[in-house]
């Protein structure tokens, strides 16, 4: 059995009456492995850039509906 991770962008209504989740998108998912070197800890720079890019895209997609 291996450990997995999942980073999710979730949009929801902030009204107490409407506490429903609107869209829920998996930004990144993968498995965790034992690091062999100090440089194997955390996300690599390329993965970080991809994560920020996909989060920005998800946020912009939601914001455009407000315009």
SSE succession: EEH
Mean pLDDT: 89
- Measured as a percent range, the helix fraction is 25-40%
In the residues, how many domains can be counted?
1
**Which segments are poorly predicted (pLDDT under 50) over 5 or more consecutive residues?**
none
Number of strands: 2
Query: How does the helix and strand content classify structurally?
Result: alpha+beta
In angstroms, what is the radius of gyration? 16 Å
Q: Name the strands of the widest sheet in spatial order.
A: 1-2
Largest sheet: 2 strands, antiparallel
Structure at a glance:
This protein is α+β, with helices and mostly antiparallel strands. It contains one helix and two strands; from the N terminus they run E-E-H.
Helix and strand layout, with pairings?
Blueprint: E1 4-12, E2 21-31, H1 45-64
Antiparallel strand pairs: 1-2
Give an account of the 3D structure:
The chain has one domain. It has one helix spanning 45-64, and strands spanning 4-12, 21-31. The chain is 30% helix and 30% strand. It has 67 residues and is an alpha+beta fold. A two-stranded antiparallel sheet has the order 1-2. The protein contains one helix and two strands, in the order E-E-H. Strand 1 (4-12) and strand 2 form a beta hairpin.
